[in-house]
Write a structure and sequence with these properties.
With about 375 residues, the chain is of the alpha/beta class. About 30% of the residues lie in helices and about 20% in strands. The chain has two domains: about 130 residues, Thiolase/Chalcone synthase (Peroxisomal Thiolase, Chain A, domain 1); about 210 residues, Peroxisomal Thiolase, Chain A, domain 1 (3-Layer(aba) Sandwich). It is built from twelve helices and eleven strands. α3 crosses α12, α5 packs across α9 and α8 crosses α9.
Length: about 375
């Protein structure tokens, strides 16, 4: 059962090599991932009639660039989804909607990142003159950048709920437990809570191990109709439901719900549209660009109440291999490498196909993917056929 107007399936996933070294051209990374995804699905470039991608800037080729690079003859639907969207999942959500609406039959979605692009988001220098919303921020030292904002959110959560930093450390430690089982992951060494608590501060109280790990890499996904999926190479993974949300105020700082933004709205909308509930989920792939985001998402999705993550997660074993809430089973952006939201989608698909080898969650039939931050939220429920 699906809430979409036309049943949609994910039929192909692909990755380029992931690395920290060198400066590979974004085009070569994106094309490698796209070709791998098409091959995985048993399709050719000529079968593609929709391309969607999410980008911040020049670190990635655009949709039309990709069409030329792959030799796609014509696009019936395409878009370059810019930064105001649910992180890398934005392209996939657009692709699902395009196929469901009949705007295209087979959509290729991708995200390309370079290590250099991953280092953006630091503290900017202040302007000589300020106006608009910045006049209420800059005099107090808020000079922009996502790191400053996430540090504020982490501090607010710790103070408001009287919780220790260890709660965030559970997310970082868990990422390494899974990445140790993933040969594609860039960071595979074990991480202890002491390692986390002694790691360098970036913007107090945000630590370097709260932040995702920039890499050179690209990831791609192929989406088509459930009907066509029956004739393709891989077992189909169906999109049961999807949702967006911004929250009231739709702002990183002035949002009415500072700690969660649109997450609760997105989760409520997702479960209302889905034929399933959180209790049905076998594997969860939740945005971990920064550990405070993951904690907020888990609470919003219904695993526990506001501020209750620490009590709910305990020693973190429930998130780890063999636990009852397997989380970010490839290691997430904290350990596999920063692939943005579409990396979580691909891992969910591989889990539901039963193709994750040592990190495979037993009998996985339902996956949850949630991505984006605060006023830029998106989520999907996927099911194995």
């Amino acid at each position: 059962m699906t809430s979409l107007t036309r049943p949609v399936a994910v039929v192909g996933v692909g990755y380029s090599d992931l690395s920290r070294k060198g400066e590979p051209h974004p085009n070569s990374l994106a094309v490698a991932a796209a070709k791998a995804a098409l091959s995985d699905a048993g399709l050719r470039s000529a079968d593609v009639d929709g391309i969607f991608e999410y980008k911040f800037g020049p670190e990635s080729p655009g949709a039309q660039d990709m069409a030329r690079l792959l030799g796609v003859p014509d696009l019936a639907a395409f878009a370059d989804i810019m930064a105001s969207n649910p992180s890398g999942l934005g392209g996939a959500l657009a692709g699902v909607m395009a196929v469901a609406a009949g705007a295209c039959e087979t959509a290729l979605v991708f995200r390309c990142l370079t290590r250099a692009a991953g280092h953006q988001g630091g503290v900017a220098s202040g302007p000589d003159e300020i106006s608009g919303r910045d006049q209420f921020l800059t005099p107090y030292g808020y000079l922009g950048g996502i790191l400053v904002n996430l540090a504020m959110k982490k501090r607010r959560w710790i103070d408001e709920y009287s919780r220790p930093e260890d709660d965030f450390g559970r997310i970082a430690v868990n990422a390494r437990r899974w990445s140790a089982l993933n040969p594609r992951a860039v960071l595979r060494d074990a991480l202890t809570m002491d390692d986390y608590l002694s790691s360098r501060m970036v913007v107090d109280p945000l630590r370097v191990l709260d932040c995702d790990y920039p890499v050179n890499g690209a990831v791609a996904t192929v989406i088509t109709t459930a009907e066509r999926a029956n004739d393709l190479r891989q077992p189909a993974v169906l999109v049961d439901a999807m949702a967006y949300a911004t929250g009231r105020g739709a702002d990183w700082v002035f949002d009415v719900d500072f700690l969660y933004g649109g997450m609760f709205n997105c989760a409520e909308r997702l479960w209302r549209r889905s034929s399933l509930t959180l209790d049905d989920v076998d594997v969860a792939e939740v945005y971990d660009g920064f550990t405070p985001v993951t904690v907020a998402w888990i609470e919003a999705l219904g695993a526990c109440g506001r501020g209750e993550f620490g009590d709910w997660v305990g020693d973190g074993s429930r998130l780890a291999p063999g636990g009852d809430f397997p989380l970010n089973t490839a290691g997430g952006q904290l350990a596999e490498g920063r692939l943005h939201g579409i990396g979580f989608l691909n891992e969910a698909v591989l889990q539901l196909r039963g193709q994750c080898e040592n990190r495979q969650v037993q009998d996985a039939r339902v996956a949850l993917v949630a991505s984006g931050v605060y006023p830029q939220c998106g989520a999907m429920v996927l099911t194995a056929v």
